[in-house]
């Protein structure tokens, strides 16, 4: 599979990964807890450990978008750690509380379906216990996210703008071409050859035919390097207007831009009319 093929179905692969991870972890914990309780002779029905673990896993999955949104606001990268690390540590408190509340609600529903009542026990003591577990899980989730981003960048081949020794200089607007460095090699990328640009976390990815150039840059930053041939069509996408072949409208007000090379780029309702005006 090529990076280009993967990125076309990236969302489906990512959802599948987290679902598979949650199911495997919850199933393994359920079996282990059931065995341990059986050895201790605890009066627990066989289905109860499964309810406990899968209610916790389901709540974690439901809260994952919130964690990703918070990390986008406070990314853990050089130069921002003094601000981001304390922010993440503070965020674990409400995050853990939401996890516990969601988990308990699901358990009460499951127990009610079995004709029983669920008792969380002493909330004061158990909240502290759950928080200690949730901090570790929160850290493991973040580590998985950053490892995934690192592996994806290396697979694509992370690139960067070359500033010819002027790293502290402001970026110059580009009208024709610019140099990027990828896997230790320098490439001359013609702006005309860029099909579209996609935001990916703290990076943007230049789609140039079948080649991908991930850059540590913001959408606003890359937009300042481009001219009127490019248009923002989504909070995470910029297209080369010369590459747009067709706009597919949706009843929701959103749309999809089909490019000459076959790529399909989302167009939000916020930018849809402006794109139609630009295309004449």
UniProtKB/TrEMBL annotation:
<feature type="transmembrane region" description="Helical">
    <location>
        <begin position="50"/>
        <end position="70"/>
    </location>
</feature>
<keyword id="KW-1133">Transmembrane helix</keyword>
<feature type="transmembrane region" description="Helical">
    <location>
        <begin position="91"/>
        <end position="115"/>
    </location>
</feature>
<dbReference type="InterPro" id="IPR012379">
    <property type="entry name" value="LytTR_MHYE"/>
</dbReference>
<keyword id="KW-0472">Membrane</keyword>
<keyword id="KW-0902">Two-component regulatory system</keyword>
<protein>
    <submittedName>
        <fullName>LytTR family transcriptional regulator</fullName>
    </submittedName>
</protein>
<dbReference type="InterPro" id="IPR007492">
    <property type="entry name" value="LytTR_DNA-bd_dom"/>
</dbReference>
<keyword id="KW-0812">Transmembrane</keyword>
<dbReference type="InterPro" id="IPR046947">
    <property type="entry name" value="LytR-like"/>
</dbReference>
<dbReference type="Pfam" id="PF04397">
    <property type="entry name" value="LytTR"/>
</dbReference>
<feature type="domain" description="HTH LytTR-type">
    <location>
        <begin position="178"/>
        <end position="280"/>
    </location>
</feature>
<feature type="transmembrane region" description="Helical">
    <location>
        <begin position="12"/>
        <end position="35"/>
    </location>
</feature>
